[in-house]
Amino acid sequence: MNNVYFVSFAALIILSSCKNTEPDAFAFGNFESEEIIVSAESSGKLMEFSVSEGLKLEVGDYCGYIDTTQLYLKKLQLTSGIRSVSARLLQLDKQLMVNEVSMNNLLREKNRVVSLLGGGAATTKQLDDLNGQIDVLRAQTDASKAQKSVLHAERESLEIQILQLNDLIAKSIIHSPSQGIVLEKYLYTGELAVAGKPLFKIADLSELMLRVFVSGNQLEQIKIGSEVDVFIDGQDDSLRKFRGTLVWISGKSEFTPKIIQTRDERVNLVYAVKIRVVNDGSLKIGMPAEMRL
User: Fold this and answer.
1) N or C, fewer C-beta in 10 Å, the chain?
2) Phi-psi bin for 69: left (phi > 0), alpha (psi -120 to 50), beta?
3) Which helix (H) or strand (E) holds 6?
4) How far is Cα 154 from Cα 145, in angstroms, rounded to an integer?
5) 256: in domain
6) Which residues touch 107 (CB under 8 Å, ≥6 apart)?
7) pLDDT tens digits, residue range 55-114?
8) What H or E segment, with its residue span, contains residue 70?
């Protein structure tokens, strides 16, 4: 009988010892995600918008498009303007070629008159008239070249406007900026989209952030990059363990949030800490958890 009492007492001590070695929760908090709000980059009617809540998207996946009719018509107008400017440039080029031929003829005529003037077969007036025609033709050529420069600048301006329209048309096609799950959808097909107005919210749930709050006297026990244990409630009042990496510590303190219970209830100021945890599908946004060192 004494042996039975001794064994029972020893087992009680061992169980008590094991219970005391289990670490207490270091901090409490809730899971959150790094969410991206995708906004419209142009304005117009949503002609197609196939996004739905819960849909899994990859980077660059097509989601829909905004009406581009007015942008396309404006592009046609600018394209027509470029063709008109190009035609005027072609006309100026031909005029410059005519001026060049006329200039060569006048210069030959001038040389002939100068030769005749030495023998008395031509008059000074004839030479002056030729010089006047040459000056006028040079002025016309300079004016045509200046006009040509203006037309080149005008065409360049139109081409830049077309590039701007192409960019707006491209931005009217909605793509997913990252991989993740659609959390919320704000607009539907047929509604009016406005540049800067949110279309949907997406988040990558393959990893979640556990935001916990620690007191100032706990800061020295943690550091960025260290690995910690994260526990969530499991079945039958058990705890399920995950491994996480501490990635961020707030640089300033704040008052303890009402929903958080710290180890020391007398602490009023705490520091926010983020822990990155790989999600196997069981972690959800807003789920409570605790961190242990």
Assistant:
1) N
2) alpha
3) helix 2-21
4) 14
5) yes
6) 134
7) 999 999 999 999 999 999 999 999 999 999 999 999 999 999 999 999 999 999 999 998
8) helix 69-118
Beta-bridge mates of residue 276? 209, 245
Select from 154, 161, 164, 157 the least CA-distant residue to 85: 154
Say yes or no to pLDDT of 123 above 50: yes
CATH number at residue 241: 2.40.30.170
Q: Shortest CA distance to 181 belongs to which of 64, 56, 286?
A: 56
Q: Decide which of 171, 195, 220 is a domain's last residue.
A: 171
Assess whether 165 and 51 both reside in one domain.
Answer: no
Residue in the structure block whose two tokens are 């029972």: 8
Dihedral class, residue 270 (left if φ above 0, else alpha if ψ from -120 to 50, else beta) = beta
189 to each of 5, 39, 76, 120, 174, how far by Cα in Å?
77, 15, 27, 91, 13
For the full predicted model, state whether its pTM sits above 0.85: no
CA 88 to chain centre: 41
Q: Provide long-range contacts, Cβ within 8 A and 24+ apart, for 255-262.
A: 256/213, 257/213, 259/30, 260/28, 260/29, 260/212, 260/213, 261/28, 262/27, 262/28, 262/213, 262/214, 262/215
Q: Are residues 254 and 268 in the same domain?
A: yes
Could you tell me if 103 and 183 lie in one domain? no
Does 282 lie in the same domain as 211? yes
Burial 237-275 (b: 16+ CB within 10 A, else e): eeeeebebebeeeeeebeebeeebebeeeebeebbbbbb
Range of the domain at 78: 69-171
* pLDDT band, residue 5 (cuts 50/70/90): very low
